[in-house]
Amino acid sequence: MTTSADEPRARFTSRRVQAMPGSVFAAMDAAKDAARARGLDVIDLSIGASDLAPPAAALAALREAVSDPATHGYCLGSGTRALREAVAHWYRRRFGIAVDPEAQVLPLIGAQEGFAHLLLACSDPGDAVLLPDPAYPSYFGAVAAAGLETVPLPLRAERGFLPDLAAVDPAAAARARVLVLSYPNNPTAGVATPAFFDEALAFAQRFELLLIHDFPYVDLVDDPADAPSLLARPGGLEHGVELFSASKSFHMGGFRLGWAIGQADAIAALARLKGAVDFNQYLGIQRAVTAVLGEPPEARRADAAIFAERRSALLEAMQAIGWHARVPRAGMYVWAPLPAAWCDSASFTDGLTRATGVALAPGSAFGPSGEGYVRLALVRDPAVLRQAVARIRAHLD
Ligand SMILES: Cc1ncc(COP(=O)(O)O)c(C=O)c1O
Q1: The model scores a pTM over 0.90
Q2: Ligand 1 nearest atom to the CA of residue 245, by list position
Q3: In this structure, which residue's CA is closest to atom 14 in ligand 1?
Q4: What CATH number labels 15-53+299-396?
Q5: Residue 327 CA to ligand 1 centre (angstroms)
C-alpha cells in the first residue's frame, strides 16, 4: 500500500485527499502495459471483475428502459420504490426476514460508493474505525476521506480469517464508531458463521458501534449456509448495515448498482448525505436490477458453480507445481502464500506480470497483514487458469 501523506500537497488538494493512499492498480497497469509492449497476451487475474454475462432479463429491461422517456429524467429521493421493494422481497426470500423498503433499504451506486458515503454519514473526523487487515483496498481511501483513525483487525489463516474481537484494545474500541466486516471475504475468501456474527453484534452493542457488513459476494458461495446475513441475527437490524452489489450477484460491475439494508438511522443518514451528492443511479439500470432480483435463485447457484469449478481447476494446477493454498468455499478469489523463496508480494507480482503477462494482486495491496500472499481472481475459464499456472511455473523455474 502506498501513501502520499508525506508528499508536498498540491494547491487545490485537500488534506483528506492527500491522506488517501495511491491506487495499487496503477502500478499493476504499468506492469501489464510493459508485458503487452513485449508482445505477451495478458492473463489478468489481478482484478475481481466478473467475466460472466449479466442476466438476459436485466439487459432486456435496460434496453426497453432506454427507449422510455419516463426513465430520462432525474431520480429524486432514495431510488425507486419498485427497486426498494424488490430488494426487500429478495432479502426476505433469501434470509427469511422482513425489512421495511422505506426505512431500511437504500439503493446505491455500487457497494463501494455506499461504503465511502456511509462512513461519512455515520462518523465524525477523529473517530476510530475497526477495519480488517487485509481488506478491500478502497476502504483505505474511504477511511482517509472521512478523516477516521484506523484500528486494524488482523485476519489470520489460523482463525479462518475471522478477527479476534476479544483481542481488541477496549480503549480503541471505545474511540470507534464503526466496525467493518466483509464475508465471504475479499481477499482471503474466509467465510463467517452465524455464531461469529452474534459475537460481533454483542461487541458492537457493548461499544455502541455501527457494524457495516460489506456483503457483495452473498451469491458466490458453494453452499448458501456459508453466506449468513448479519441482519438476520438477533439485534442485526439494530446495529448493522449490509451492503450488496449487482457487480458480483449479476455480473454488472460497469452498471454501478448496489443496495444497503439495515439500521434505520444509518440508512436515513446515508440517504440524506447522498441527497447532497448524487441523484441516484439511472432509472433504467434500477429497472434492470429490479427485474433480476425477482428471479428464482437457480441462476445464481449456476454462476456460483462456475466459480467453484474454476477454483478447483486453479488449485489443482497450483498443487501440481507444489504451490499450496487454502481451499476456499466461497467468493471469487484464491488467497495463496507467496511461492517459496519470495517474501515481497509486490515485487513478485510486478516481475511475474512483466515476464509472463500473468497479473496477480500482491497481498500487500490489501494491508500489512496481506504481505506474504497473492490474490488470484477466478475471472477466466479453467483452461486459461491452467495456462496461467504453467507460465508461473516457468517463471519460478
Ligand atoms: C469487498 C468488496 N466491496 C465492494 C466492492 C465493489 O462493489 P461495487 O462494484 O458494488 O461498488 C468489491 C469489488 O470487488 C469488493 O470486493
Answers
A1: yes
A2: 10
A3: 48
A4: 3.90.1150.10
A5: 22
